[in-house]
Inverse folding.
């Protein structure tokens, strides 16, 4: 069996307790992973004078794959997000965020299986902001042709290899004719390479309304950074909340897997939060590493534990602690693997 | 109530001090290297908002032909210094836009690069 070395970044707030639980489950799945623990975030700033230490960068550059817990970013003034820095430094341009209904989670829908491909490095996240006078702030929204083309191409390619049928571009090109217009033009150009996949576009405001009314109509969505940020949280809400929304940040040679949610600091240390989102991100990572068998085992066991409702966390109506839920999955894997 | 008039009343005037410039340039020659230009010294260069100088640059990084170059003043400067800078700078580099950087009541009115 192949051995993998994976950089583990436990993060801040509830991150470390979630990552411990997730590691326990993954280790019990039979894969051979050597975890290299590294840090990022505000504690690093205090200790090493930087949010993103060189050692962490070197570790990810070497291993080319990382699993990451959430970090805390102060709002408004203060420091840059260590997260965004990480995505930019490694040019992880594709933020893949599946929104798929999980059995048992209460929701009004029978079917949701949406794959969001969020451009992860440009747009108003380019961090080019100025106070251009003492009463006017300005943020440059940067959209480039190659940046837009590659996320569309990536999404079509992913859709094709995963048997998906439709890929749609989400934009506001009716208003932002240059920036979103360029994004959509590049999307259409990339689409030409995939004649078997149905394509189209939807304006972002309409997309929100449609998602809430009839999410089953959507398959794969390609989005610029900011719309992608917002729409993927909306999708998380549709499928059972942030506790179940996983993600991957993928570049041409490197991938960092992390949940959509943040560090939920008010619950830090209480072992209360749901580790499923990070665990499903870990399952995505195992598939990325071609460890399909372990990934399936964890997924099935997790669904079974959720289905039984005995050992689930508060957000799905249970009282289990983070690690109790993880232990229940480990126990279930033992039973399932033994079958 | 006239909300527009109300809003205008709440404006707070601040004292602006010129401390540098962001110069946007177009070049096909890769990451530029700069000498010092009079009272201006290059602090960082970013491409698509990602810092490409100084520090680590991923070999995979997508770059376009448009760079933001931040020049900070090494001493007190006036608007005329920016004009002089652009005359010299423009002989070698093709710039698309310039944004003056000010502090307002001592607080930076510009973001750092990632
Ligand atoms: N990728 C990241 O590291 C990332 C992403 C988003 C936000 N953040 C940061 O996290 C901090 C907190 O942000 P926030 O409060 O806006 O968002 P958050 O996602 O941390 O929390 C929002 C709410 O969602 C619920 N929630 C989140 N994760 C959960 C889980 N695993 N199980 C159960 N419930 C969960 C909680 O009720 C929480 O109060 C901020 O500093 C923010 O910048 C980091």
């Amino acid at each position: 069996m192949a051995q993998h070395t994976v950089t583990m970044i436990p993060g801040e707030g509830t991150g470390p307790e979630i990552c411990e639980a997730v590691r326990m489950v993954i280790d019990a799945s039979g894969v051979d992973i050597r975890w290299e623990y590294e840090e990022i975030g505000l504690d690093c700033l205090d200790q090493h004078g930087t949010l993103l230490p060189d050692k962490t960068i070197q570790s990810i550059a070497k291993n080319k794959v990382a699993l990451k817990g959430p970090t805390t970013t102060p709002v408004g003034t203060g420091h840059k997000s260590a997260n965004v820095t990480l995505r930019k430094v490694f040019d992880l341009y594709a933020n893949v965020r599946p929104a798929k209904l999980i059995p048992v989670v209460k929701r009004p829908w029978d079917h949701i299986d949406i794959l969001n491909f969020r451009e992860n490095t440009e747009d108003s996240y380019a961090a080019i902001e100025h106070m251009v006078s003492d009463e006017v702030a300005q943020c440059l929204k940067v959209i480039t042709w190659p940046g837009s083309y590659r996320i569309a191409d990536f999404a079509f390619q992913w859709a094709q290899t995963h048997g998906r049928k439709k890929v749609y571009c989400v934009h506001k090109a009716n208003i932002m004719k240059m920036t979103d217009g360029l994004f959509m033009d590049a999307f259409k150009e990339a689409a030409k390479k995939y004649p078997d996949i149905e394509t189209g576009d939807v304006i972002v405001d309409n997309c929100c309304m449609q998602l809430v009314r009839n999410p089953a109509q959507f398959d794969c969505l390609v989005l610029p950074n900011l719309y992608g940020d917002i729409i993927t949280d909306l999708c998380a809400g549709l499928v059972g909340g942030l506790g179940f929304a996983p993600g991957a940040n993928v570049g041409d040679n490197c991938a960092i897997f992390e949940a959509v949610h943040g560090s939920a600091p008010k619950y830090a240390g209480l072992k209360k939060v749901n580790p499923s989102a990070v665990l499903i991100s870990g399952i995505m990572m195992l598939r990325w590493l071609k460890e399909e068998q372990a990934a399936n085992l964890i997924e099935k066991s997790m669904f079974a534990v959720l289905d039984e409702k005995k050992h689930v966390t508060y957000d799905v109506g249970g009282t289990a602690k983070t690690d109790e839920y993880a232990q229940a999955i480990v126990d279930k894997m033992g039973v399932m693997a033994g079958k | 109530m006239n909300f527009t008039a109300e809003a205008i009343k709440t404006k707070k005037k601040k004292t602006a001090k010129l401390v540098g410039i962001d110069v946007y340039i177009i070049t096909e020659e890769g990451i530029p290297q700069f000498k010092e230009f009079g009272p201006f010294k290059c602090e960082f260069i970013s491409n698509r908002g990602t810092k490409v100088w100084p520090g680590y640059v991923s070999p995979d990084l997508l770059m376009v032909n448009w760079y933001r170059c931040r020049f900070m003043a090494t001493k007190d400067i006036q608007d005329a210094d920016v004009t002089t800078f652009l005359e010299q700078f423009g002989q070698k580099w093709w710039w698309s836009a310039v944004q003056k950087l000010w502090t307002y009541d001592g607080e930076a009115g510009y973001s750092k690069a990632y």
Q: What stands out?
A: Chain B has one domain: 13-108. The first helix of chain B runs from residue 3 to 9. Chain B touches chain A through 28 residues (CB under 8 Å).
